Prior knowledge:
Helix content: 25-40%
Strand content: 15-25%
Largest sheet: 3 strands, antiparallel
Shape: globular
Number of helices: 6
CATH class of the largest domain: Mainly Alpha
CATH architecture of the largest domain: Orthogonal Bundle
Distance between the termini: 34 Å
CATH topology of the largest domain: Helicase, Ruva Protein, domain 3
Amino acid sequence: MILDLSTGDRIVVQPRFTGALLIDAGDLPERERQYSTVEFVLDDGRSLHYRDIRRLGTVALMDAEHFARYTAKLGVEPLDRAFTAEHLSGLLRGSRQAVKKVLMDQRAVVGIGNIYANEALWRARIDPSRAANSLTRPEASALRDCVVEVLTESIAHRGTSFRDYRDASGERGGFVEHLAVYGRAGEPCPRCGRRLVGTHAIDGRMTVLCAHCQK
Length: 215
């Protein structure tokens, strides 16, 4: 998350697993404020807290030069117009890694976390362990569309809360109720009814897939 300041500098927040920015108008519950690691006092009297239960995230103040170096190392934003089927296809053709690993590589595409990579690959009917360069152009196009759909829907539902995540108002994200595969290993596939498989073998993170639907 990037906050533009009137000085031209920027505050860059990398929340990782449990970080969140919370707006406090005096009514933020104490249970949320107790994990605040940074507080910004706003001109209108409210506060903006960076709350992080595990303290794995970072908050950095960057001038223009530092910010340019930082962003130069990052890939395309998946909700940007530059994230086209052609662009994704080119990224995939250049890698023999598992397609899921490429999706989650911030140097290739920023902002696709483990939950959304699982969901997008299931929607696109693509096995997460497949070599990225084995995807056809139509498959890459379908995957691009599914990534955009999943992220857009998640934003509309204020994110996904399993345990600690909260939106800026301190509310839980509602997209967890719309997940097709993540967190559902052993349950029936919503599409074909076969049993969903959970594994850590692809990238050390939990991957849930339907071995029947995803090829």
